[in-house]
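Human:
Focus on the backbone:
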Amino acid sequence: MTSNRTWPLFRLSTTGILVRGSCWLLLLLGVLFAWLAPLLTPWEEKPVILQPARAQAAWSFAWLALFTWLPFQAAALGHRIRKQGMLEHLQAAGQHRYNLCLQLNASIFVWVAAVAILAMIVCLGFCMPKSEADARDWSVLVLQYSTLYLLAAIPLVVLAVTLGTRTHEIIAFMVPVALLFLGLFGGIWLGPFLAQDDSLIGTLLWVVMPHYHLADLTPRLVFKMGPLPTADFFRTAGVLALEGAVFTLLGLCAFRTRS
């Protein structure tokens, strides 16, 4: 069976995103933001801050895309494809429900990966330290950051797509954005309070809330703190993977093919 027959929904969804053109604007804005934003800092007085500022800008844009364009496109795509009856039609033609879900999500995964790769190119191509030892540590840190970012981003995109097939696209957009906001900033704001709370409710709240702040390694890039120790990295990746599995399963339960 040809790939055209195997993944028709992926090809249709990807083509639709490409034709609309906002994906190219996203990448162009990413390049411009990473290049121009650091120029607003006093880099002429201290040129050494320019490279870390570019790395910070590149990853800040990646998180900004995860707050805006990526979940919006995911929610709109899921809602539009289901409303048009394409999912129901392809399922009646013999496509499995979970295969359709994978195809639909894969068309957004392409752009999640593109945003992460763009940040990696900026960090490794324009911000690499001159020292061989520092360059090696920098490269490892960038790879760690990319891995953790993808572990955080992909389940949220899955949730946006699948909720889009179940409910209105605005709701499907807001749910992953709210989870991301809670995961990035809730841990920082609530952490000191929950750490002092010895009650079962406080502990349970800390355990069940998303911990996307663990995936934000921007301070380590800016201050050149080096990569995470291997044990810490795998522990962080495990936490994010477990949370991602929960959100993915919730998304699969919400996925709807009937128009």
User: Anything to note?
Assistant: The first helix runs from residue 3 to 6. The chain has one domain: 3-254. The two ends are 27 Å apart (CA to CA).
